[in-house]
Protein backbone atom coordinates (compact mmCIF):
# COMPACT_ATOMS: atom_id res chain seq x y z
CA UNK A 1 0.00 0.00 0.00
CA UNK A 2 1.50 3.38 -0.97
CA UNK A 3 2.42 5.63 1.94
CA UNK A 4 2.15 8.84 -0.07
CA UNK A 5 5.90 9.49 0.29
CA UNK A 6 7.18 7.28 -2.53
CA UNK A 7 6.47 6.98 -6.22
CA UNK A 8 7.07 3.22 -5.96
CA UNK A 9 4.67 0.46 -5.00
CA UNK A 10 5.27 -1.86 -2.05
CA UNK A 11 7.26 -4.85 -3.29
CA UNK A 12 8.40 -3.12 -6.47
CA UNK A 13 12.04 -3.94 -7.22
CA UNK A 14 13.84 -0.74 -8.15
CA UNK A 15 17.48 -1.05 -7.10
CA UNK A 16 20.12 1.63 -6.78
CA UNK A 17 22.38 2.84 -9.59
CA UNK A 18 25.90 2.07 -8.39
CA UNK A 19 27.54 3.89 -11.27
CA UNK A 20 26.53 7.23 -9.73
CA UNK A 21 28.07 6.50 -6.33
CA UNK A 22 31.48 7.78 -5.34
CA UNK A 23 34.36 5.67 -4.03
CA UNK A 24 34.31 2.06 -2.94
CA UNK A 25 30.61 1.88 -2.08
CA UNK A 26 30.56 -1.84 -1.35
CA UNK A 27 33.40 -1.60 1.18
CA UNK A 28 31.93 1.54 2.74
CA UNK A 29 28.47 0.01 3.07
CA UNK A 30 29.89 -3.18 4.59
CA UNK A 31 31.95 -1.22 7.12
CA UNK A 32 28.97 0.99 7.94
CA UNK A 33 26.76 -2.05 8.52
CA UNK A 34 29.33 -3.65 10.84
CA UNK A 35 29.70 -0.37 12.74
CA UNK A 36 25.92 0.00 13.06
CA UNK A 37 25.65 -3.51 14.49
CA UNK A 38 28.18 -2.70 17.22
CA UNK A 39 26.41 0.57 18.01
CA UNK A 40 22.74 -0.42 17.79
CA UNK A 41 22.59 -3.81 19.48
CA UNK A 42 22.96 -4.30 23.19
CA UNK A 43 26.57 -5.24 23.94
CA UNK A 44 25.58 -8.64 25.36
CA UNK A 45 24.27 -9.78 21.92
CA UNK A 46 26.17 -7.64 19.40
CA UNK A 47 28.72 -10.38 18.61
CA UNK A 48 25.89 -12.85 18.00
CA UNK A 49 24.16 -10.32 15.75
CA UNK A 50 27.38 -9.90 13.75
CA UNK A 51 27.50 -13.66 13.13
CA UNK A 52 23.87 -13.75 11.98
CA UNK A 53 23.83 -10.66 9.71
CA UNK A 54 25.58 -11.14 6.37
CA UNK A 55 27.64 -8.63 4.48
CA UNK A 56 25.67 -6.86 1.75
CA UNK A 57 25.27 -8.62 -1.59
CA UNK A 58 24.69 -6.56 -4.73
CA UNK A 59 22.25 -8.26 -7.09
CA UNK A 60 21.72 -6.73 -10.55
CA UNK A 61 18.17 -5.73 -11.43
CA UNK A 62 17.12 -6.95 -14.85
CA UNK A 63 15.05 -4.38 -16.71
CA UNK A 64 13.21 -4.56 -20.01
CA UNK A 65 14.01 -0.90 -20.58
CA UNK A 66 17.47 0.40 -21.42
CA UNK A 67 18.77 2.11 -18.29
CA UNK A 68 21.95 2.34 -16.23
CA UNK A 69 22.84 -0.73 -14.20
CA UNK A 70 20.88 -0.90 -10.95
CA UNK A 71 21.37 -3.22 -7.99
CA UNK A 72 19.31 -4.50 -5.11
CA UNK A 73 21.29 -4.50 -1.89
CA UNK A 74 20.53 -7.72 -0.02
CA UNK A 75 21.49 -8.23 3.61
CA UNK A 76 20.51 -11.66 4.90
CA UNK A 77 19.77 -12.38 8.53
CA UNK A 78 20.20 -16.03 9.46
CA UNK A 79 18.97 -16.44 13.06
CA UNK A 80 20.65 -19.81 13.55
CA UNK A 81 19.78 -21.47 16.85
CA UNK A 82 23.46 -22.44 17.13
CA UNK A 83 24.34 -18.76 17.60
CA UNK A 84 21.10 -17.24 18.90
CA UNK A 85 20.07 -19.94 21.37
CA UNK A 86 17.25 -18.28 23.34
CA UNK A 87 18.50 -14.69 22.94
CA UNK A 88 16.38 -11.80 21.79
CA UNK A 89 17.78 -8.67 20.16
CA UNK A 90 16.81 -5.13 21.04
CA UNK A 91 18.18 -2.24 19.02
CA UNK A 92 18.70 1.45 19.63
CA UNK A 93 18.96 3.32 16.33
CA UNK A 94 19.40 6.62 18.16
CA UNK A 95 23.12 5.84 18.29
CA UNK A 96 23.44 6.07 14.48
CA UNK A 97 20.82 8.66 13.50
CA UNK A 98 19.81 12.10 14.61
CA UNK A 99 16.11 11.70 13.90
CA UNK A 100 13.87 12.84 16.74
CA UNK A 101 11.18 10.36 15.68
CA UNK A 102 13.04 7.23 16.78
CA UNK A 103 13.27 5.04 19.88
CA UNK A 104 15.34 6.58 22.66
CA UNK A 105 16.30 3.28 24.29
CA UNK A 106 16.86 -0.31 23.21
CA UNK A 107 13.62 -1.60 21.71
CA UNK A 108 12.47 -5.02 20.58
CA UNK A 109 11.22 -5.20 16.99
CA UNK A 110 9.29 -8.25 15.78
CA UNK A 111 8.52 -9.42 12.26
CA UNK A 112 4.75 -9.82 11.83
CA UNK A 113 3.57 -10.78 8.35
CA UNK A 114 5.18 -8.40 5.85
CA UNK A 115 5.94 -5.74 8.46
CA UNK A 116 8.24 -5.21 11.42
CA UNK A 117 6.85 -3.61 14.55
CA UNK A 118 8.28 -2.32 17.82
CA UNK A 119 7.00 -3.75 21.08
CA UNK A 120 6.19 -1.71 24.16
CA UNK A 121 7.76 -2.89 27.42
CA UNK A 122 4.55 -4.73 28.36
CA UNK A 123 4.18 -6.29 24.88
CA UNK A 124 7.86 -7.30 24.99
CA UNK A 125 7.38 -9.05 28.34
CA UNK A 126 4.44 -11.05 27.00
CA UNK A 127 6.29 -11.83 23.74
CA UNK A 128 9.36 -13.12 25.60
CA UNK A 129 7.26 -15.31 27.89
CA UNK A 130 5.08 -16.83 25.17
CA UNK A 131 5.76 -16.32 21.47
CA UNK A 132 9.57 -16.31 21.56
CA UNK A 133 9.69 -19.81 23.04
CA UNK A 134 7.50 -21.09 20.19
CA UNK A 135 9.65 -19.31 17.59
CA UNK A 136 12.85 -20.83 19.03
CA UNK A 137 11.31 -24.32 19.12
CA UNK A 138 10.09 -23.98 15.51
CA UNK A 139 13.50 -22.66 14.36
CA UNK A 140 15.28 -25.62 15.98
CA UNK A 141 12.84 -28.09 14.37
CA UNK A 142 13.28 -26.46 10.96
CA UNK A 143 17.07 -26.52 11.27
CA UNK A 144 17.05 -30.21 12.23
CA UNK A 145 14.79 -30.98 9.27
CA UNK A 146 17.05 -29.05 6.88
CA UNK A 147 20.10 -30.81 8.29
CA UNK A 148 18.48 -34.21 7.69
CA UNK A 149 17.59 -33.24 4.12
CA UNK A 150 21.14 -32.08 3.40
CA UNK A 151 22.57 -35.34 4.76
CA UNK A 152 20.35 -37.50 2.55
CA UNK A 153 21.60 -38.11 -0.96
CA UNK A 154 19.27 -40.11 -3.15
CA UNK A 155 20.75 -43.03 -5.11
CA UNK A 156 19.72 -41.35 -8.38
CA UNK A 157 21.94 -38.34 -7.71
CA UNK A 158 25.05 -40.21 -6.56
CA UNK A 159 28.02 -40.29 -8.90
CA UNK A 160 29.26 -43.64 -10.07
CA UNK A 161 32.88 -44.50 -10.89
Automatic annotation (TrEMBL):
GO terms for cellular component: cytoplasm. It comes from the Eukaryota. This is SAMD9. It comes from Mytilus edulis (Blue mussel). The lineage of its organism: Eukaryota, Metazoa, Spiralia, Lophotrochozoa, Mollusca.
Amino acid sequence: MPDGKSKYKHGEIVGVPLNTLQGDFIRTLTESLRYAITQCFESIVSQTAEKCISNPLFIPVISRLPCPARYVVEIDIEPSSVFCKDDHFRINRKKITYSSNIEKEHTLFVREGVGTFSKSKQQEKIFLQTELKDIIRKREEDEKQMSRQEMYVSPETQWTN
